[in-house]
Amino acid sequence: MSEATLAVRLVQGMTRGGGKTAIIRGERRLSHDTLLTAGNALDRHLRRLGVVPGDRVGLRLSDPADFVMAAAALLRGRAIAVPIDRPTPEEQAFLIADADPHVIIHDDSLSAPADVLAGRRPIPLAELDLAQEAPEPEPPRPDDPALLLYTSGTMGRRKGVVCSQANLAATTDYILAFSGLDDEAVEYVGAMVDHAFGFGRCRSVLAAGGTLVLDDRPFTPLRALALLRRQNCNAMASVSAGYVMLLRHFPDAFAERGKHLRWLEIGSMPLPADLMAELCETCPHALVMMNYGMTEAQRSTLIDIGRESGKRGSVGRAAPGTAVRIVDEQTGACLPPYTPGAIEVSGPHVVPGYWRNEEAWRARFRDGWFRTDDVGQLDAEGYLWFIGRRDEMMNVGGEKLSPVDIEERLRPLLDRPYCVCAAGDPQGVYGDIPVLCIEEASAETDWPALRAAATRLLPPSWVPKAAVTLRALPRTATGKVQRKHLRRLIEDDDPAIRRL
Amino acid sequence: MRYSGARASEAGGQHLRGTLQHIIRDTFALPADLTLEDETALAAIPGWDSVGWVKVIHAVETEFAVELPLDELADVETLGDFLSIVERAADGDGPT
Lengths: 500, 96
Hints:
With 500 residues, chain A is of the alpha/beta class. In chain A, strands 2-1-10-9-11-12-13-14-15 form a 9-stranded mixed β-sheet, sandwiched between helices. In chain A, strands 16, 17, 19, 20 and 21 form a 5-stranded antiparallel β-sheet that branches. In chain A, strands 4-3-5-6 form a 4-stranded parallel β-sheet, with helices on one face.
């Protein structure tokens, strides 16, 4: 077990940052010193409320500056921070009942019903004086559970992932070592700060002693461009959909800002290959970083798609001290390079378990390796090439196909969001068939013409056998398309689906 | 798609408002009886998302042959905010 803790990393960064601005949100400015003081003060408040090591403290704060300040403060102590990351009363109720927090620090966006909150001490942030001087918290230990993040997905199916101080430190250290992010960083985080990717950026920038630029309004390419310019940012983090929108719709304006950027990270899912090249050209001085990871094992691999351009399309190599392997799904035997199989990861970034769900964790953890449920292959240099989610792979007449591969090949034909998912073959011939799902308000697509074009581009079994349109593809909170959910909609003849 | 054949010079307030509403209705396939007021928050429009927002902006720029100031659009919250930016651009005051 690594001896590092995130608490130590945060204190190091905040001490380096001192009176410099740590967080900008609109007109608001919070210095590193303010964050340090807030950590001490919050710890004293919580101790007076009877919170002991291992107790959960819920955070429902809609202003990202409040959230990051409170989360960073909590992570300096020995309680477990629980972001309550959903807006609806039902979703908050599920999360609160599951995480069982002793205290909930909130603003007026806390909407869970009173019976769920009973006995849990909801405390408005505004009532906590975080500017008062107080002693430093008792330092947490590396294996202390520190953060309880919930996987994306539908309510009831979300799993609480317990991240230890050491896990969070390991990921933060890897990001800083790989990217050279330092205290000159002024980073616009165009991603949700209460999710794994966005919060990973926030804690890394704070640990570097840099400045975070946050927004309390949803990401749009226009907000991104405006904040990059107004705050003279030299770093940016967004999910890949954000970069796609900037490159496609505002290439000139993005290029104007892009030349000032030194660090970028792409989250959630890989950027398509042609857009990777475009992004590197648009931001010629930036280290453009992409990762492969999940809440249970954040930043398992990293790649700088600028410097490692020959490996674009891969998701990079494992961090020092961690490992990625490819195994046969059935036997668990390691597979040689260039052989597709199940991706497994190990290292100090892998979390110790799921929250109160030992059985689910046992199913994912084998001989010290976390089974990711993804399929990929390694090359001779140890780069990981992601193929797809195991449960999203389709079996078309005995041939295993990745929806991601088909989507990539269809890209020249479509200028609007789309995806490919599996659906059961209604003729009962193929098992699965690939279905093209196009996001459009009205069914405008000329499917016969599109299918004819696809037939010229793709091997026969890859050509979607059917196409549907819907107003919006179902996505997770981080923008990943939910292909399994789409499959259900298609097979259930859901009214949201229009067949072409 | 052209919505009205309008040119910037003939874009009076009411006409412009109607065209904007038409573009937004088309983009998000809104029901005909849904009222769009100047006070309507864009984020409250059913199906509103950043991709649709970009489509609306591009459609308005094409329709009125204007270039809208991106930095100001970043702060738009209501239909009225958007309308006033388009009005200024159509009158030739922006962008700079």
